[in-house]
Amino acid sequence: xxxxxxxxxxxxxxxxxxxxxxxxxxxxxxxxxxxxxxxxxxxxxxxxxxxxxxxxxxxxxxxxxxxxxxxxxxxxxxxxxxxxxxxxxxxxxxxxxxxxxxxxxxxxxxxxxxxxxxxxxxxxxxxxxxxxxxxxxxxxxxxxxxxxxxxxxxxxxxxxxxxxxxxxxxxxxxxxxxxxxxxxxxxxxxxxxxxxxxxxxxxxxxxxxxxxxxxxxxxxxxxxxxxxxxxxxxxxxxxxxxxxxxxxxxxxxxxxxxxxxxxxxxxxxxxxxxxxxxxxxxxxxxxxxxxxxxxxxxxxxxxxxxxxxxxxxxxxxxxxxxxxxxxxxxxxxxxxxxxxxxxxxxxxxxxxxxxxx
Length: 357
What we know:
This protein has 357 residues and is α/β, with parallel strands linked by helices. It folds into 2 domains: 4-135, Response regulator (Rossmann fold, 3-Layer(aba) Sandwich), CATH 3.40.50.2300; 164-355, 3-Layer(aba) Sandwich (Rossmann fold), CATH 3.40.50.180. It contains 12 helices and 14 strands. It has a 7-stranded parallel beta sheet with strand order 8-9-7-6-12-13-14, sandwiched between helices. A 5-stranded parallel beta sheet has the order 2-1-3-4-5, with helices on both faces. A two-stranded antiparallel sheet has the order 10-11. The termini are far apart.
């Protein structure tokens, strides 16, 4: 197998050296060049034709976001962004995904991270994932007109116990990874106001970014979307996103549902893990479950979906290869013969609504 040729872009000479050393330590990766500004990055992309680019967001002359826009428009290549662990860094990271970046990796301690080795495994893994991505699927979702509203006025959230006769005790759960923020935007912005079942979501994402993702999606959607909190009572018409660094479980107490967050060891290399969420939901009594696995590398979620299929009423959904940025997680579920419907991302919301009425 040919080595993956990578261009490393960072305004810090120290960071360029450290990132290059990390990537070159892997036998499958070769750093073919470095750049210190966005302008130089564009020039090096044209000249060196790398397989993957790692691109710092905060740079002089032309910052990472501006450079990314030019690269993806004129000379498309898989790009992994490096960002700071701040709210501003999170916002910039999601903008980068809109502009066509494959994924992002947070620097542990700011622009110049002396502890950059902490993310070495993650960075190598994401570079290897990036080379498998179909760039045509990295376009931001077009803001579509929302599905017709079920109820004109957004209902006040109510606890599951109180709403038993109204919601038919239905639950939706979704798992996703690489390409997930775009996929979730496509799905959640097309869930109509008045949709009663609560939605539980695991998006593989580092701590510090999931709250920004929840706030971003909440602004675009008619249902309420929030980062989940420990021991939080579940209410209707709300989507809960597992916080980065924590597993999310849904548990039953006196016919009510609560969220439990734990720091148990990673599952399938992830915390949060889709399997952990889905397994907890498979243990719920008297609930009808609509579960969906969207784009992502690996197989997280397939075993959990199998448990839901075995123990619960409901429907299982997988995003089709046609629209998946990475068809790993959906494919793993499909290969277990547990998926009822395989649909492109544009049809996932309608499929969830159809099976949750």
